[in-house]
């Protein structure tokens, strides 16, 4: 039961957290669970000097490329854990944020923080330092484009973007398939080179938790073979593509009972691949004069049905002193102002009757400072001593004078660990077995009731814990859905962890296009980034233009651009998401839903997009092809083609309708409106048109 999970794949210099799974088998009240587990490095590269510390949860930071074999002694025996470390692909680069570019005067900056697509290394904790006329920070980053945010207040109301590009190839990809040929299981690894990268080789790895012997397996290049007679009841086979960098690993599960079956545990549920997601900021949904409760949301389910959505994501519904709910004070009960547990269950049942699945916002990176566990931790209660991160005051780099006054009197050695300047939501300590067990209890509490989790600040929680969560949930319900909030996105969270990921690349491109800072064809660069960053082909990307953490698109750009941007999210691959009020013209980030005074025409436009996507499978599954077009840089065109059907999409981000001549013959009827858009040698595009191809 305490086995530590699958083989881990990393690179030199990146720390890997290793832990026993669900260590709840301690029976002696006087026996500390921590004392029942110990790690040792059994084998490592010849020139390596790395070790692991004491305790049940350890951190291995490889210092040489190669294979590290570790053993975990646990109450139920000894377990083996393999870590494969590849060469370090990172280069030292510097982020620079000139003081003159900050949105507030330098003397008003409370703190300046930085994050980016390198969460394995910093978790957003490193503070930039003042140097001359700027704030700077040095980081070792892998090749690619990296973005950071200088935060100058607690609500991200004022911030400044910084960016740096690191030269080098992207990540390769690998996809596993399995089949039985006669009396032999054949596993094939399809490896794809990264843009600007060399052809990768494939490494196969067996799972130490299974009884499949290395001697029973033969591998040659991209193919692995094993006799069916040698297969155990279950075998997990992993593969990594390796070139200048290593890929996200892929996995097959082979079940050998009466006959052999092969499954792909990293794939999202089929329903999620075709879902249209709607997000509600719960306390703003019912209206201006009506308090939002579960009952009030339930009364409005017909509206969600009218939008043809398949999945509802609710911001946190558990106990919290804040209106957004992300400062959790009670994980095991619903917030009193929203309603009872029974009323929440009634809402879920009503939504399911309407064919709408429910995604629960899971907040387990941190709690509120008002959570009893943190209060007891801060007050020195031994039982809670290791529940939260503690950062030594002389090592965390925080300017004590820059902290709010009520945060400078932290009692004891060190300060609570937190991200950015979120001083009121201290980070939980996942080096604690008690915390891991507690959070698994939270997951077990809500998973049977809902259809999926959206993991808040997923990048702050260790990869190993998410791998345990995925196996735990999927073993009970293979259709359970897992969406990570990792900003900027990181393909590593798809490796036996999450089904779907925020598409921060498309989000950023649509914002730049909407503001007129990039041509409409920049959306193709965002799509190409999926391949460069190494997102596996099985990964599902959430396409969105706004959410509860972002300014409204219509406020930052305008309605004309919003229509085109929404058109992009519904006609490109992935799962489109509508943030409540987006379709009604709500201009405030977390504003009250506009029911009687909303934009009815904009709502009808979103309904047409959603229905057409449901009616035409090619918009969900077809490949994207760039279409030549004769128009200005506010327009873009592409085709969706699944081999049997082909549709052409044209988008216009400008204020006025454009006549666009397309590079292939199309029908004149817009499938969104049912009206002709023929105009001379082209078509008239006001915002978005979808046309049958006549090729």
Features:
about 20% helix; eight-stranded parallel β-barrel; alpha+beta; 39 strands
Describe the 3D structure.
This protein has 695 residues and is of the alpha+beta class. The chain has an 8-stranded parallel beta barrel. Strands 1-6-5-3 form a 4-stranded mixed sheet, with no helix packed on it. Strands 12-13-16-15 form a 4-stranded antiparallel sheet, with no helix packed on it. α9 (504-514) packs antiparallel against α10 (522-533) and α12 runs parallel beside α13. The longest helix has 16 residues, at 600-615.
Count the beta strands: 39
Radius of gyration: 26 Å
- Sketch the major β-sheet: 8 strands, parallel, barrel
Structural class category: alpha+beta
Note the overall shape: globular
Low-confidence spans: pLDDT under 50, at least 5 residues?
25-30, 117-126, 395-412
Number of helices: 14
What does the average pLDDT come to? 90
Strand neighbour order, sheet with most strands: 20-21-24-27-28-29-30-31
Helix share bin: 10-25%
Kindly report how far apart the N and C termini lie. 58 Å
Strand percent estimate: 25-35%
């Amino acid at each position: 039961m305490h086995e530590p999970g699958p083989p881990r794949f990393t690179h030199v210099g990146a720390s890997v957290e290793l832990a026993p799974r669900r260590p709840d088998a301690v029976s002696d009240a006087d026996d500390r669970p921590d004392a029942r587990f110990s790690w040792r490095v059994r084998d490592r590269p010849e020139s390596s000097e790395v070790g692991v510390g004491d305790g049940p949860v350890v951190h291995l930071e490889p210092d040489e490329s190669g294979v590290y074999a570790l053993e975990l002694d646990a109450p139920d025996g000894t377990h083996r854990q393999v870590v494969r470390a590849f060469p370090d692909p990172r280069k030292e680069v510097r982020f620079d944020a000139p003081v003159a570019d900050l949105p507030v005067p330098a003397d008003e900056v409370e703190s300046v923080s930085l994050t980016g697509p390198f969460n394995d290394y910093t978790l957003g904790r490193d503070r930039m330092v003042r140097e001359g006329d700027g704030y700077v920070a040095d980081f070792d980053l892998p090749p690619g484009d990296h973005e950071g945010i200088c935060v100058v207040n607690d609500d991200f109301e004022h911030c400044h973007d910084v960016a740096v590009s690191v030269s080098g190839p992207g990540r390769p990809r690998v996809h596993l398939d399995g089949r039985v040929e006669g009396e032999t299981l054949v596993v094939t690894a399809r490896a794809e080179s990264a843009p600007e990268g060399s052809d990768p080789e494939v490494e196969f790895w067996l799972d130490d938790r299974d009884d499949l012997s290395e001697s029973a397996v033969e591998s040659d290049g991209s193919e692995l073979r094993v006799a069916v007679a040698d297969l155990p009841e279950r075998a997990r086979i992993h593969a990594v593509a390796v070139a200048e960098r290593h890929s996200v690993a892929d996995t097959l599960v082979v079940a050998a009972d009466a006959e052999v079956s092969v499954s792909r545990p990293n794939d999202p549920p089929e329903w999620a691949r075709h879902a249209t997601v709607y997000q509600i900021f719960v306390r703003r949904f019912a209206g201006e004069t009506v308090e939002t409760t579960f009952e009030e949301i339930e009364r409005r389910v017909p509206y969600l049905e009218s939008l043809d959505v398949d999945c509802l994501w609710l911001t946190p519904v558990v106990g919290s002193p804040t209106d957004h709910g992300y400062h959790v004070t009670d994980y095991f009960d619903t917030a009193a102002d929203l309603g009872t547990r029974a009323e929440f269950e009634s809402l879920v049942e009503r939504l399911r009757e309407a064919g709408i699945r429910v995604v629960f916002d899971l907040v387990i990176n941190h709690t509120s400072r008002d959570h009893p566990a943190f209060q007891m931790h801060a007050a020195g209660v031994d039982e809670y001593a290791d529940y939260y991160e503690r950062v030594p005051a002389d090592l965390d780099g925080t300017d004590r004078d820059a902290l709010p006054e009520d945060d400078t009197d932290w009692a004891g050695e060190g300060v609570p660990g937190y991200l950015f300047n979120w001083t009121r939501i201290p980070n939980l300590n996942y080096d604690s077995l008690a915390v891991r067990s507690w959070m698994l209890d939270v997951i077990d509490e809500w998973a049977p009731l809902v259809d999926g989790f959206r993991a808040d600040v997923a990048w702050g929680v260790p990869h190993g814990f998410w791998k345990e969560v995925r196996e735990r949930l999927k073993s009970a319900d293979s259709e359970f859905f897992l969406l990570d909030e990792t900003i900027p996105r990181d393909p590593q969270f798809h490796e036996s962890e999450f089904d779907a990921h925020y598409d921060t690349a498309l989000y950023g491109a649509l914002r730049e296009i909407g503001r007129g800072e990039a041509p409409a064809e920049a959306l193709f660069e965002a799509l190409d980034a999926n391949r460069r960053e190494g997102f596996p082909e099985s990964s599902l990307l959430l396409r969105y233009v706004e959410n509860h953490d972002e300014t409204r698109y219509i406020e930052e750009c305008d309605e004309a651009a919003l229509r085109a941007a929404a058109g992009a999210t519904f006609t490109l691959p992935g799962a489109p998401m509508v943030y409540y009020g987006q379709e009604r013209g709500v201009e405030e980030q977390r504003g009250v839903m506009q029911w009687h005074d909303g934009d009815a025409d904009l709502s009808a436009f979103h309904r047409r997009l959603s229905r057409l996507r449901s009616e035409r499978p090619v918009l969900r599954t077809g490949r994207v092809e760039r279409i030549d077009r004769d128009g200005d840089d506010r327009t873009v065109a592409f085709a969706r083609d699944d081999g049997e059907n082909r549709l052409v999409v044209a988008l216009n981000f400008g204020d006025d309708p454009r006549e666009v001549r397309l590079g292939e013959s199309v029908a004149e009827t817009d499938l969104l409106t049912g009206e002709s858009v023929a105009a001379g040698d082209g078509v008239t595009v006001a915002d978005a048109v979808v046309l049958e191809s006549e090729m």
